[in-house]
Design brief:
The structure holds two protein chains of two kinds.
Chain A lengths: L2 E5 L2 E5 L4 E8 L6 E6 L5 E7 L5 E3 L5 E5 L4 E6 L8 E8 L5 E3 L3 E6 L1
Parallel strand pairs in A: 2-11
Antiparallel strand pairs in A: 1-3, 3-8, 4-5, 4-9, 6-7, 7-8, 9-10, 9-11
Chain B lengths: L3 E4 L2 E4 L5 E7 L5 E8 L3 E10 L2 E4 L6 E3 L9 E3 L8 E8 L10 E2 L3 E5 L1
Parallel strand pairs in B: 2-11
Antiparallel strand pairs in B: 1-3, 3-8, 4-5, 4-9, 5-6, 7-8, 9-10, 9-11
The chains are: A mainly beta, B mainly beta.
């Protein structure tokens, strides 16, 4: 079965600093990969997704992620953090047409 | 506006009681899902349904039951057999079973606590 591992349950950055959230996947076939964001007491919203069209994927709110097959990684980045980016972020891989497997999440804190 | 509505937002369960969480969508999606979220554990799949009158167990189905009598509705019952029900429950949907690259649409969740 496919899985994802998110390194770091908590990440803290200063406003204006680079955001880097790490995600590694395990898959024997080219996967579909997703990043979702969750604000407190809300559902998840899609940030971006990789479906093999391009290795660098741009999403909403200035986030982007690069698919690196050699490293089995799909790390999420943003050049300059904003206070409104504080949330929990989930990496996910599509296990089959039926299911999506989520990582354990990374909580991002942004300090002024 | 199209979307997924979960109710109630907060729910309390007494010992030995069954409770039902509501999930309604007006997106005309075939596939619907229930996830359980616990701190530090991410989202775990409870049940999913690809079509009316059919559903499958996910990774943690024990102590839960579902029904799919209508396309737009997918209620989740937390039974008394679920010994640790306190969690945030999320309902989601997507267009269909073959839409592997399609995103999930999520409701805003129900926080279930035990009295």
């Amino acid at each position: 079965a496919q899985s994802v591992t998110q390194l770091g349950s908590h990440v803290s950055v200063s406003e204006g600093a680079l955001v880097l959230l790490r995600c590694n996947y395990s898959s024997s076939v080219p996967p579909y990969l997703f990043w979702y964001v969750q604000y407190p007491n809300q559902g998840l919203q899609l940030l971006l997704k990789y479906t093999s069209a391009a290795t660098l994927v741009k999403g909403i709110n200035g986030f982007e992620a690069e698919f690196k097959k050699s490293e089995t990684s799909f790390h999420l980045t943003k050049p300059s953090a904003h206070m409104s980016d504080a949330a929990e972020y989930f990496c996910a891989v599509s296990d089959s047409p039926d299911k999506l497997i989520f990582g354990t999440g990374t909580r991002l804190q942004v300090f002024p | 506006d199209g979307g997924i509505t979960q109710s109630p937002k907060y729910l309390f369960r007494k010992e030995g009681q069954n409770v039902t969480l509501s999930c309604e969508q007006n997106l005309n999606h075939d596939a619907m899902y229930w996830y359980r979220q616990d701190p530090g554990q991410g989202l775990r799949l409870i049940y999913y349904s690809q079509i009316v009158n059919d559903f499958q167990k996910g990774d943690i189905a024990e102590g839960y039951s579902v029904s799919r009598e209508k396309k737009e509705s997918f209620p989740l019952t937390v039974t008394s057999a679920q010994k640790n029900p306190t969690a945030f429950y999320l309902c989601a949907s997507k267009p269909g079973r073959h839409a592997q690259g399609e995103k999930l649409f999520f409701g805003s969740g129900t926080q279930l606590s035990v009295l």
